Fold this protein.
Amino acid sequence: MKRRKGTSDSLLTKAGGELDDRFKLAAPVRILFNKVFPDHWSFLLGEIALFSFILLLLSGTFLALFFEPSMVEVTYNGAYVPLQGIEMSRAYESSLDLSFEVRGGLFMRQMHHWATLLFMASILIHMLRIFFTGAFRAPRETNWMIGIILFWVGFFEGFFGYSLPDDGLSGTGLRIMEGMTASVPFIGPWASAALFRGQFPGTDVISMIYIIHVFIFPLILLALITVHIGLVFAQKHTQWPGPGRTEHNVIGFRMFPNYVMKQVGFMLFIWGVIAAMAGLFQINPIWLFGPYEVSVVSSASQPDFYVMYLDGLIRLFPAWEFRIPPYFTLPAVFWPAIAGMGLSVLLPLVYPALERRFTKDRAHHNLLQRPRDNPGRTSLGVMVVVFWVVGAVSGGNDVFAEKFDISLNAMTWAGRIGIVVLPIIAYYVTYRICLGLQQHDREVLAHGLETGILMRDPNGRFYEVHQPLAEPDEHGHTQIEYNGWVVPKKMNRVGALPPTDRGFFKSIEEPSDNGGAARDEIESGKH
Amino acid sequence: MSAHNDSARDEVAPVDLDDPKLTRFEVYKEGLRRDDIEIIHYEPRFPRPGTKAEKRMERIVSGLFLLSGLFATLFVAAFIWWPWEYEGAATWRDPQTWYTPVIGATLGFSLLFFALGVLTWAKKLLPIEELVQDRHDGGSSKDDRRIAESTVDTLVEDMGLRRRPFLVKSALLAAAPLGLAAVAPLGALLKDPGDMYTVTGWNAERYNDGEPIRLMMKDGALVRPDMVSAGGQITVYPAIDHGATNQFPTAPTLLIHLREADAETLRGNLYPMYQDVDAIWGNFVAYSKICTHVGCPASLYEQQSQRLLCPCHQSQFNVVDNAAPVFGPATRHLPMLPITVDDEGYFVATSDFLVPPGPAFWNRPSLPEEDEK
């Protein structure tokens, strides 16, 4: 770092000089430190995934020190009494040992699992933010596609991860995966035999998914995350429209110290939440499930939440099996599991290209859109979300049926009908809401804010006083173009009333004296 | 939309860095100018340094850091000294019950307090700032593109890619098998599925020298008719080596002792292929326990409605109608294991399942018997 004499600590200057002599850092470091970042809470959702991922690498490394991916049959003689003397795989035994006989092992296991759930959840929420604000549009389509791939790699990384302990629940998950694999036309049975080295469950699958889980997929995730963030950095972050903000600039604060301090604080915050959850909330108590046996399963066998929608689709899909006599069968599970998952990968990947094609919008967009301003896309997104939620709820329909005392078959039928009907209703309702919000924005721009003050004129007519946002013309109308900014909807947003959200535990709204000069100003907008 | 927003910045003249009168901040601003950054707003959070309010904020932040350090110390101490070893079912009074919550809470609080310290520092002590930077979106300049183009063209020309088509073709020709060679080792994973889906542990020829295979329970006890009361059911396995283990994933079978009336119904409904082999013995019927949907054990037996339910995806099978699917995503009945009782009074399977049990697979033959009702 090149510093002028006498302006910095001389030792620091000297060290900077030595570094610069060798690595020529002065200019790049300055550019990095000065880089301007736009600020909005919704830009931090992806970071939750990044910080969870770092914690996953750390806690996963700890777990790998103790876990043995072996399906060798052993007799349990560990500390957990109810399972003593039971035959199980070494993988399950070492997972139990991790939970009971390694100092802090249970804590680390739970931290790894909670961090995974947070990782996947934040990817989903982050993806919704990107989708609904149109941040995937040119020039950022590549990064959107990388994000989708990240989700799916994370999906399988998570699934393989919770399959490793070889407990009763995870074995059931693998069993279902085998059924799905074998349904694939032509290659299904061969793919299954390759994955399990013969017949399910065999004795090799744990070591197979172990190397995928601890090496191949983390490597892919790490590489993709690096590119993902690198592209955000190189292409510069999108920003919300607002005063002075254009497609050609970035308004915000500097990378150092402001942005980096907030990021570090946020990272520690996320880690703190996960650590506290790992200590206080139990997750995946594998010792209760027992070792995996092909003949044992219990009800309430649910996968982790991000797999649930797929499991729900499998539960809902009708018993349609196609037979091509005499040799071939296309099992019912093929449609929801293989075709459904394939579409769930493919459609999001190509969505930016589809939108480009149908809207013929080929321009670069660095300003975000408010979801209401693109009702078609927003409604489509809500439609997909509703479809996903119905699927996920159906993935736990046996639990819902039991807890709420509903017939299981009724739950299934509700899901079957709901997954077709509800997304359509959601599309329509969302579209109307978007249009309504748009209309209200225009109304406020033309007539002013609703003050909530009702007046009666001498003729007995009641009217609401409006506060115009600019000097009105003779009809009381203001000619303000809508330009994608947030339109103020409350008086305290335009400074006429103090903000209502002061105070930490409860709002402190300071009542203004209803009269005097302020009152005159409000009345001036009547029409 | 206006073009580049840099008209204002053009007015900011570059400063002469050799000017000895320049302040630190003026030099700093020259850096911003070179990075196409302009300050919109920049003021210290506390205009007068050293006020009470500023001191108070500093105290809060340092307090948060110290709290974080305290909890981190507690975490390390608890990690080392708190009794942690699991000694059977402990009550809430035993300290080891609290080991995981204590280390989780201390580490969590330590991280949270440090986070709050850093965040408060950033939000309450850093200057209030707003800057604008040029985005420079939309590709390189025309000159750069042209130069890049001719650079690539020169490379292509130097290598003679256009002039030596045969070279290129032969390279591509070699690359294809070379790529294949790179993935070929994965072929070591391939294994012929063979008859793994169709032959189960009940196959007497393969696993019991052709002798009929007896039914056993998980602990190895052979099964006699008097062991299951009417209306009851047990899970049985082939009485062979490791018959009750995961080595025979499609062998687990439910042996159900039907009540007389239910057995009568079943006898009336029995598929011809099961009639032909006399698949049920007395009021006893044996169904594959492996769901024909995706292979979970269809293990929940509802005596009243005579249904078997698979808890994974809720397929339901009618016990008194060949275990045909009546609800849910399963498409085929649970295959029946033909059983009888041998001379010594134990159940034996008279053959393997007549149709492959378990989930369907792509090359599962469509058997005409299955569609006979």
